[in-house]
Structure formats: structure tokens, C-alpha cells
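Example 3.2
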Amino acid sequence: MSHDHRHARAGTTLVLATLFTLGFAAVEAGVGLWAGSLALVADAGHMVNDAAALALAAGAAWLARRPPSPRHSYGFGRAEFFAALVNSLALLALVAWLVATAITRLQAPQAVMGEAVSITAAIGLAINLLVAWLLARGEKNLNTRAAMLHVIGDLLGSVAALLSGLVIAFTGWTPIDPLLSLGIGALILFSSLRLLREALHGLMEGAPFDIDPQAVGQALVAVPGVASVHDLHIWSVKSEVPLLSAHLVVRDIGQWESVLQAGHVMLAERFDIHHATLQPEPMTRTVRWRKRPVRGHDHEG
């Protein structure tokens, strides 16, 4: 199957998962407001978080099929980081609302329709299991793995809402609802802060978290024929496509073609970096660099 066909199938799966998740989040929020269950509303907020994550993954799959343009030579993958930034900030606002409302509910408990909460949460649990099954059958890449983590977190939220409804239905103890809401809020907070960190890191063109720039520099300087490496930069346009540029000081400029090929092969095999720009420099220019201390972007062999 071609690369484009795999992305098309992944995009379709993610769109279906998004529609299922977002559709039921609206139902869950409506029932939660009607039944007076903050836990159900909190779980609906968590499902919106998941739907946003799934939508981002679907958008990334769609953008991956779009060719670069003359004015956007890297393509449009960076939109993923902008969307993640907006999403994470909105979720932090949701967490603040949940905490404030939960504290108010603990101070002044309100009646909750436990049966309605239990039934709705059980349906939500089934929807989350369906979404997880869809993702498990789709293409395995960074976006779908991240989306799966969101869905697993939402499974826990549905279980919490279901437990809240059952406890209230059988015991009438309503404080369980705001207490579990705080737990769901903690789940949303954790995922939101992680998403915010990744979005800001990507927008600031930071090196991908799964790649150690120091290790890459040491590996490049170990390529036969390379004397030292400097001006090493690693960044990404979208999460699964790291980019690299570096200046390689070579011992024999006449051997540059073989050094270049060896460098590209090493970067692809060891670090999964397939987009690298390596610039050669003759050995005669290395003296002034060796007078400087070796840092993150300067490596000598």
C-alpha cells in the first residue's frame, strides 16, 4: 500500500473516531447538566479534549498528503502546533471552571440523578471502547499513538462518571460527584499541560523530545572522514518529521560525496532523520573552532 493510501486510511479512521467522540460528548454534557452531575459534565469536557486530539491527528494525516508549495516549502504541518496550543489553553480554562464548581458543590451539595448518570456514562464507556478499537486497527504512527493515549484517559473518565452515578443511585452520597470531577479535572490538566508543552516546544523549533542533539552530534563526528561538526540544528515542522542541518568539517574535501552518503544513512538508521542538509567545509578552517570549548552544537573528532 502506498504512503498516500496509508495516510488516507488513517485520516478516515481518525475522522470517524472524532465524530463518534465529539457527538457523544455533546450528549453527555446535555445529560450531565439536566441530571445535575458535574462528573458527567467533566467527562464530557475530557471527551472534547479527546475529540480535539483526534481532529488534530486527522488534520495532520490530511496535511501529510498536501505537497509543499513555492511559498510553503515545508508544507503545512506546523498548523498542528498552533491547533494544539489553542486546544491546551481552552482545556486549562475548563479545568479552572471544574475546580471552582466542584468546590462550590462540596460546600453546598446538590441533588444528582444517579440512574441517568450511570446509563449515560455506560454508553460513553462503550463509545470509547469503539473509538479505541478503530484506532487500534488503523495506521500506527505518532499521531494515532497519541490519540490512543487520549482515548485511554477518557475511558478512565467514563469509569469515574459511571462509578459516581452508581454510588449516588445506591447510597445517595452526592459528594462523590464533585470529588470524582476533581479527579477527571486532574486527568485533563495533565494531558493539557503536556499538550501545551509540546505545542510551545514545536512552535519554538525545539529539537524533538525523542532525539538527543548531543548524541546526534557525536554520531556525525564519528562518520569516517569527518573532523568536527558545528552549527548543528534539529527541529520539526510537524511532530513525526524531524529536520536537521549541520556543517561538517571534512579531512579530505575530495571524499565529500562518500561522507555525505554515510552521514545520511547513519541519520536515517539511528535517529530516523530523513530530511538532513549537510554542508562540507575544508579541514583548513577548523583551527579557530578548536580554540572554542565543545558545546551542544560543536563536536570534534
